[in-house]
Structure formats: structure tokens, C-alpha cells
Amino acid sequence: NAGVMQNPRHLVRRRGQEARLRCSPMKGHSHVYWYRQLPEEGLKFMVYLQKENIIDESGMPKERFSAEFPKEGPSILRIQQVVRGDSAAYFCASSPGQAAVYEQYFGPGTRLTVT
Amino acid sequence: KNEVEQSPQNLTAQEGEFITINCSYSVGISALHWLQQHPGGGIVSLFMLSSGKKKHGRLIATINIQEKHSSLHITASHPRDSAVYICAAYNNNDMRFGAGTRLTVKP
User: Fold this and answer.
1) Strands, E, within chain A: which ranges?
2) Buried-most residue among A5, B23, B58, B102 (CB within 10 A)?
3) Chain A: residue nearest B34 by CA?
4) A54 close to B (CB below 8 A)
């Protein structure tokens, strides 16, 4: 059973470009969480999704950021018009149910660098 | 004040020492997770607990719900335990992370 996959592992974008980060959960997991870790800072919750639904996006910046988890395919975190402050490691985690009840499995992260 | 506080921020130990990392939280929780982040950045879930104590190998996690406090213990520490240890408090969909404790175990 493959673990949580994220790609790309490293992504470089110029200011103003779009960044698309992908997360494939573990087989059988229908809950996906996205987290951001700014340089030298702790993890911060961004968004919690189940298949085709956003359950909680209270940690997402109001502009430029969006997330989806379609019926087929990976979950996508999309950042439009990236700025230098978006440079961070973005982790996704998956679980078979709600994080308060089930253990989460983390992907290796995508390191976004905005130049 | 952060809702999830960890102490110490940094910890250096000699191989073989008993390690304790503390986590205090001010919010109501349904579960608390301990995570390990390796120097390369990868994150591993160590424990999820809502009461009592769990043990896995040389790692022990305890939680006291009344005192809103959890501890992570490492017995017979080893250089490969060097990592950042993060506690995360969960209340349904609401998640709060501690800033992490950076542990360095010297041979």
C-alpha cells in the first residue's frame, strides 16, 4: 500500500505565476488535509477536504488560494499569482476518517520557492 | 499566547538519556497527536491519544485531560531520534499545532 504521494517535491515559480500542488492520499483514505510550514515556523492547518467537498477551509488565505478533491484523481492545492511570502513547504495528510478520531499519514511535502 | 505550547523549544541530550517533551494546551480537544519531523522535512505520526498512555518501542506518550497536558518520553535516546517533535491538538476539524521541540541526541 503506497503512502501519501505529493508532487512535485520541489516547485519554483516566479512572482505572479500559478502553483499547482498535488496530493494522492493512501488507498482507502477519503479525507485529505493540507498544511503549510513557513521557513523556521510551525505547521499551520489550511484546509480539510473529503471527496468532492471542502469541509473546513478556515486556515486558507481568503485570496489566491483554492483547494479541491475531485471524485477521481488527486487533491489539488492551487495558488494563483504567487508572491514571495508563499514560499514554504506544503504538506498534505490523509486519513480514513476525521483527524480527531483517526491517525493521519503525511506526504513528503512540496517545497515551493517563489523567485 | 499560543493555544498549544511546547517545552522545551530546543533540547540536547547524550545518547542513552531519558527525554521528556511537554505539551500544554488551552483549548478543549478530542484528540492530541504527536508528530516527528525528520531533518529532511518528512513528517511521521507517532501517537494519537485522547486519554491515558500509549507506548511504542522506546516512545511513550501520556495525556492528562484535566490538566490539559501531554508528555512524550523517549527512553534510551539515540542519535537517530534527533528530529523536531510536534504536538497537535484536535477538536473536530479545528487543529492547533505547537511550535515544535528540536531534539538533538549526541553520540
Assistant:
1) 5-7, 10-13, 19-24, 31-37, 43-50, 53-56, 65-68, 75-79, 88-95, 105-106, 110-114
2) B23
3) A103
4) no
Cα A47 to chain centroid, rounded: 8
Amino acid symbol at B31: A
Rounded Cα distance, B66 and A107, in Å: 33
| C-alpha distance from A4 to closest chain B C-alpha (Å) | 11
Whether residue B75 contacts residue B61, with contact meaning beta carbons closer than 8 Å, is answered with: no
pLDDT tens digits, B29-59: 888 999 999 988 889 999 999 999 999 999 9
Residues of A in contact with B41 (CB under 8 A): 89, 108-109, 111
Residue A104: all three cell numbers together: 493521519
Contacts of A104 in chain B (CB under 8 A): 33, 45
